[in-house]
Amino acid sequence: MANVAVDQLISRSNRLGADPKNTNYAGGNTSAKGTETDPVTGEPVELVWVKGSGGDLGTLTPAGLAALRLDRMRSLVNVYPGIDREDEMVAAFDYCLHGKGGAAPSIDTAMHGLVDAPHVDHLHPDSGIAIATASDGEELTPTIFGDKVVWVPWRRPGFQLGLDIAAIKTANPQAIGCILGGHGITAWGDTTDECEANSLWIIDTAAAYIAEHGKAEPFGAVRPGFEALSSGERLAKAAALAPTLRSIASHDRAMVGHFTDAEVVLDFLASANAPALAELGTSCPDHFLRTKVKPMLLDLPADASVEDSIARLGELHQEYRADYAGYYERNATPDSPAIRGADPLIILIPGVGMFSYGANKQTARVAGEFYVNAINVMRGAEALSTYAPIDESEKFRIEYWALEEAKLQRMPKPKPLATRIALVTGAASGIGKAIAERLAAEGACVVVGDLDLAKAQAAAEGIGNADVAIGLVCDVTKPDQVQAAVDAAVLAFGGLDIVVNNAGLSLSKPLLETTEADWDLQHNVMAKGSFLVSKAAAKVLIEQKLGGDIIYISSKNSIFAGPNNIAYSATKADQAHQVRLLAAELGGHGIKVNGINPDGVVRGSGIFAGGWGASRAAVYGVAEGDLGKYYAQRTLLKREVLPENIANAAFVLCTSDLSHTTGLHIPVDAGVAAAFLR
Ligand SMILES: NC(=O)c1ccc[n+]([C@@H]2O[C@H](COP(=O)([O-])OP(=O)(O)OC[C@H]3O[C@@H](n4cnc5c(N)ncnc54)[C@H](O)[C@@H]3O)[C@@H](O)[C@H]2O)c1
Ligand SMILES: [Zn+2]
Questions:
Q1: Residue 591, Cβ neighbours under 10 Å: how many?
Q2: Residue from 568, 620, 630, 631 carrying the catalytic annotation
Q3: Per-residue DSSP letters for 83-96?
Q4: What is the tens place of the pLDDT at every residue in 183-231?
Q5: CA 562 to CA 290: how far, in whole Å?
Q6: 25 catalytic per annotation
Q7: 166-205 burial string, b = 16+ CB within 10 Å, else e?
Q8: Which residue minimizes the CA distance to atom 7 of ligand 1?
Q9: Residue bearing the CA closest to ligand 1, atom 36
Q10: What's the pTM value of the predicted model, to 2 decimals?
Q11: Which helix (H) or strand (E) holds 346?
């Protein structure tokens, strides 16, 4: 049975974490102290449960808690070798664990264990960090909170900060918490309710004080020409710039992107003080670890053309990289980890919005959320005084901290298609659906396009949440829908790397019965549709300068000449030659173009279910349900071909294992000699 202290801690954490005003995503940590029976001695033992490294308060469960013995944890004070070697104390926490100890103890464990209170919250509320980053935060603290909240000067999180806070609590018995300079807040209480109330009182009192005493335009007047464009213009410009921006963010390492045109961002970008404030960068360690020390801001007005913006962004990128390298060189010591890439993670475009980047969509989205937190912090700090984040040497000490580096080294190896963004046409059913599922399972972000929105969305939801897959309408015969789908993909995930031309349909008729409409329909969907998709997508791939893969699901029938198939097979042959033509044309951009020739995929296929299967079964004199088995018997390997087999081939084509292969068709037909390629 869980300890009541644990139950209380989880529910308090979940409540605090559910409201973004209280802390940023995955930011902050909470703890409770309580007694359990030591299974070894049968004696009572005092424990501290504290949110472990990583994880979010809003969704914290008991599995996310570290459990330490309080007596042993506090004994560390006797062996603490001093601030220069405080990092060693993190390894020492392992010797304080109770049982297996639960989640890995975080760097903030010291603060929770050493503060003499049964319940402790450490949070990163925008309102609290605004006070923490105000240049006169130390003077503001008593003005705002009286003697209930004490100022703790900036110190990197660690054992010494825990000792500092513990000492301040002892010296100020009336205090309910403190403002941690440059960083956040910590509050405590004798009961869980008291602790929660104290946290909320600090957060709300800070916010109310800023609202009442802050100046009206903390970011200065609106800069003429930098106001938000209309919604339609914003999205169009964002989509047009996105491939270039992704290429900038991915110069050192491929990134996935997130775009927001939230009002808070647009207002900031329209303000006179935005350039100077953006240059100061973020302050809370949680913020700049995800946003990099500072963003890159386009210094052109909202109505600057896409061409002019791209040209200027190129210059700014070079400046940003030089600036970041300078920051590294100024601050690195001989034992610092190597520079981790000098590209911006946050790119701000006045009038349009913010692009944020990360190794996956969730990380990219959270980086953007953190910059919104930083904007709120800057607004609050500037409203009362002057925003003064911690200085760059301290930022560097955190960014290139050995403990932070160790965390990065512990991260699981990325999946083979991590950071890659795929658009699969006709992916609500059959082969396309199997491909979308496989690419996502291998780490790609996937856009499911199909004729029917509800079906496309259902297929996407079956794959995962909107950080993994989205569904949208894309009739590949309509150029405007194709362009809209490519734009939507680019806005959802920052770019595009893999395009699968899969949409198709099959009408099997002899020549004399094939109508002009039959011919046009099949050619429009398959030959013309894949031409339109390849064209719109290739523009993005070329601008991104990250190479990419275009895959055509053509067919055995692109080379095999059977009866009753003039329109279908002719358009499949057209698709197959597009593969070769585009492989030749796009190779110079590092874009590979390959095809897959499936045959006899009955299971899951809408083509077969929609009448084609019945007519084929009738032709062969077998029951429709046995068609798969019938086809299998015709193959050299005597195996039924499943949608997953086609998906396997699509996956392999996108991996680095086939990095030197373009213009190829892979037969996935269990062996049909008449369709051998030569
Ligand atoms: N099933 C097979 O044996 C087989 C063999 C060789 C090639 N293929 C090819 O594989 C592809 C997928 O076939 P499947 O068997 O999975 O069929 P399916 O019917 O299950 O899936 C095709 C999907 O394409 C969509 N689609 C049709 N017209 C569209 C348009 N204009 N725009 C966007 N989407 C459209 C459909 O709505 C459907 O969801 C097709 O190109 C097909 O020719 C299939
Ligand atoms: Zn913190």
A1: 24
A2: 568
A3: GGGTTHHHHHHGGG
A4: 999 999 999 999 999 999 999 999 999 999 999 999 999 999 999 999 9
A5: 58
A6: no
A7: bebbeeeeebbbbbbbbbbbbbbbeebebbbebbbbbbeb
A8: 555
A9: 426
A10: 0.96
A11: strand 346-349
